[in-house]
Amino acid sequence: MFGNLFEEEEEEGFASASSRGRAAKGGDEPPPPRGRSNLCGIKNQGGTCYLNSLLQTLLFTPEFREELFSLGPDELGCLEDKDKPGAKVRVIPLELQRLFASLLLVDQQSASTASLTDSFGWNSSEGTNQHDVQELNRILFSALEHSLVDTSGSTFIHRLYHGTIVNSIACKECGNVSQRQEDFLDLTVCVCGMSSLEDALWSMFVEEELFEGNNLYRCAQCDRLVTAAKSAKLKKLPPFMTVSLLRFSFDFAKCERYKETGRYSFPITINLQPFCEQTDGEESDYSYELFSVIIHKGGCYGGHYHVYIRDIDQLGQWEPPEEEYKLKSQKKGKEDFKKDVCEPKLQEDDPLSVLTAIIAQEPSKSVLLDQLGQKLMDKIGSSWSKKFRKHYGPIGKFLQSHSDVFMLVSNGTRVALKANPPSPVTEPPSPVTEPPGPTEQITNSDPSTPSDPGAADPQLEPKKEQGSHWFDLNDSTVTSIRESDIEKQFQGKESAYMLFYRKTQLHRSSEALNNAQYKVPLHLIHMAQEENIKLQHMREKFEATNNTVELRLHLATHYRLENGALQPINKEQDRSTTLSFDRRKTVGDLRLAIYQMLDQWEGDMALTMAKSLPAGLHLYNTIIDDGVSVYSAGLQTNSDLFVWNGREVCGATVLIGAEWEPVLLTVVRPHLGEDGIPEVEDGVGCEEGSGGFENEGTGLKKEARGFAGAATLGEVKEALGEPKESLLCQEHKGRKRAEQGAGEGGGASGWRLFPPDDMHRTLKELSLKDGDALLVLEPQSFDSSMFTLNGDVVTVTTPSDCRWLQVEFQQNGGEEGDKEEERKKVKVPATGNMLLCEVKHRAIEELQLQESLPGAQYCLRQVDCTGKLLPPVCEEMSVRDAGVRLMTTLTLCPGIAPKASQLFLHFSVGTAPSAGMEMDIIVESTCTVKECLKTMLDAVGLDGTCWHLRRLDWCEDIGEPIVDEDASLTELKINNGETLIVTEGQLPPKGFLKLSVWFYLDPRDNSMETDFNGHTEEQTLEVVTAGKTHSQSSPMYAGNMAELKSVGQVEISDEATLEDFKTQVMTLPSLQDVCLPTAAFMRVWQLEGQRLARILRGQHLTLRKLKLTSGTDLCVQQLLKEEDLGPKEVLLNVKMGVPGERCYYPPEELVWDASRDSSPRSLRTCLASHYGLSPDSLLLAKHQPEKHTWEEISNWNQQVSKKKKKKKTESLLGAPFHLKDGDTIGIKNLLIDNNRDFVTMEDQQGQQRLREQAEQRRKGGQAAGSDGVGPCKKTGITKSRKPEVALSINVGVFR
């Protein structure tokens, strides 16, 4: 039918159970039990919400469920034998039995349909393709009938759902009646053009279709064409009436499917006697009551299904839905309104009171829907969205839910009070009959006469809450609803799609009420009980595992206080004890368990939360309340718990709390070891060996010490045992090595001296943290060459044995294919002042390269973090000046090293180079771009002057050209190692644009035709102006098609202003005869795809700011008056409709200022001022030239939208209208024009052409329009949809 068009937009009810719970430690989380409703949902496999909704409906059809359960294994077989050869196992009904039993009896939130869909023969992809539920209903019934052949249940589908329609044709002359019977399992009724289910049934089974005029009927008895009447009646009524609503249709004008979202009401109880052939039975024979409504939310290409179901057997626990504030407000507002309607009492917190007062105070006793929001803001000083939307929803839905107070009048454009409706004198005229509005209610109807579409249905009598038992089953979620909630599904994107009625004669046994096991086979009950036991064990195991925490206990007898933290006495052993405990138990239970575990513990026991820090173990807060749970106390898995007496540890008082949190500092002191080997690397410690070099004999030693964070720096000095005159220094991390002063060598480091005031500040106040280094010096330490004091900065020079460079030789320049033996490494002693040429010479000597390759030239290159070789370093510089760090690696490669005045550059010809494919060149940094280009061309053997250089941009693509060829490389900031691209072609002018200029010829102005008659060589172009329709069959009228003439090209700087551009255009020879007093009399359009896209604004804006590039097509238009449009001023073509005719007066240009207000009300006010009319009398629409349709501008559709997350559209500059320059706005004056249809004869012809093109495409022919008829084809990429896949269920052969 519809294939898999219904892809789900959102799975509202689907959520995995594990996503809401805690992460399981002992395995997968078991499925959660049923919710408060005590009903089971169905898991969504990705796109099976349509299947879930239908299965729940069949489950809550007790007669269907009991007929299915009545079939035993002797007729259906056993699922265990389905794989045995020759066994006839009816898998589909067996799996359906198991699913129903699971939904009824197994204690889980949702059941899976995987086994059932497997029995259908569906693969994994079928679970993600959504289909039409009406199609599934027919296919599933057919599959069940085929599966139950030759069983006692072979006819139960026929008994429950089969009905008959008799179609009759009666001859008006001889009275002969020809009849034909038609069987149905579900009744398909029309939605389009109908207001209710009763209307649709009346049209199908009461009204007659006459064959007369040119449409006569050939009577078999008269043997000639005669006048006849065709009718249909229900002949046989089934116990269950399934009604399928035709919500989806095809629009031949737009060539696309669409969904009928208009209001379509249906009753809770219905009497079908007027629609039946035999009407002499009892009234109960024709009475049906609603028990299920399948709802579709979304459009025709995507959506989501869920179902409203009445629990007939009361298997679920129905609870009233949560009361919202609007229900209380509604009751209160009704009472106040009945007491005082004429002078309503205004309560600003009650929206019903506020809206009632606004409408009652209007002279006409009604308010335009578009103006209601603004009047509300004027009344209370706040908008509906800010004050009421959170609690009451959109204003349109609020009016709809209070239909006993408000009513729509004037064809749905105004709202009035029901108790005080507007009089015919004060009410604005309405040209058409008022359609059914949102005041209709769910009815218990007896349609003995056709329902009046203009009349409101009688209000539904309220039922007792205990008898409601309506539920919303949305995949895995089941919630209680009221019977009145069904009314909300009459219209909108979320609306009823299938209705299920049952005869009121069908009564349920008292044994079936509240009895889920009623008529369920015993073996299925046992299966469900076993499943419940299994689930209970899984949940108990999961809860036990998930609530067990593992605590690490630290006993005070194993620790001592040292360096401000608790340290284990025996550091070689881990003295913590692991205790597994249920976190749901109390702290008192935990204390008792620890007492039992420690038999020898004496005295009080304090449990204090601890944390292992770099300085040691620190205590925070002691748990005092034994009545709280372990979880509430903040204890989790791997929490540290210190067990002590609460006062001291090994005789030392322990300070607890975050303020005493210890900090582990590295204390550095000058030290001369016995062997002279320093212990500190880079000024702090050297953990590597000296590399075999001779030691100079001085160094530093480090010591890790912990101190309380609240201790002052003076207390730290005292704890270190240092004299008062000692100096403390902090490592100066923010200072660069190159700025630390001379003489520090390759491994020098800087330290900042603490001022005397810092001695009274704590370590936390000084922002000292774990791992920070603290240098302790005595005043005589500065006598050594190792320490230098410059202001408050102390420079420490490390020993020279830590100064070396590793040189790696790669013969092939570092290619990946080098063999390991071709890479030789050597360590060269070096200092920061050593020249790199000396480093290279020493490395060559160590590697003995002069002997193997005499006369070869080499250079030193650094390697980045990715392994890529950097440019060669200048060997005339020192290690420090070249930015080379000591104790790093340099690569020795074949090649020449640049001098200090030279640059090493990469270059490529034509394209951006790939890694390793560029060429290298060394040039002087003072040479010009032209000289550099000539050197590169000579290196590759190219001649000529048609070349220029370009740089690479940030994404390694060819960027902008280097325009100034006489500038030096230094002036252009071209750095060492940069890549340049040699590009063929002349150097383009700097910042100049070449723009093509066209002149706009208005078909309504013939004065310009003679001006261009002499220019026969000019190019012409026809463009569709925005918002105008092209009609080839008739002459151009009112500017349907604008003709453009090419007037030349303009070369202008991108820094020139728009006014400069206009001035230069006026000098073109082709425009000499055009009268343009100043540049302000010229309008400039930008062309995009043969359309006038936008007007360029801002006379003093540069062309660069207007985002113009070379090759852009611009169109100039002559004006009769000066124009300077603002950024939010929109130029519109407005056309007033001719009263009583399907055409318009010639269009006019109107400038609408949308800077302050871009709402429809602002545009309507502007047009009313332009034409001198009342804003309330104007009806506006925007023309869509590509579809030949008009889109009416109104806010009401957005206000009553059922999609709650969709915000109300207020700006015409945004969706869905997107008004822009040149759009056409149609206007209807409702005071004198009753025709609300904007479509003209030309629009109808265009729509006919679109239908013909669609028909040709459907037949596989070439699309019409190649000869220019119709609008230009869209060349954009359309959104691809999945191919339509037919829905099918595979059934075995059982005959």
From TrEMBL:
One of its GO terms (biological process) is protein deubiquitination. It comes from the Eukaryota. This is Ubiquitin specific peptidase 40. Residues 1249-1258 have a biased composition (Basic and acidic residues). It holds the Pfam family UCH. Residues 441-451 have a biased composition (Polar residues). Residues 1-13 have a biased composition (Acidic residues). Residues 1-39, 416-473, 733-754, 1243-1281 are annotated as: Disordered. GO terms for molecular function: cysteine-type deubiquitinase activity. InterPro entries: Papain-like_cys_pep_sf, Peptidase_C19, Peptidase_C19_UCH, UBL_USP40, USP, USP_CS. Residues 421-438 have a biased composition (Pro residues). Residues 40-504 form the USP domain. One of its GO terms (cellular component) is cytosol.
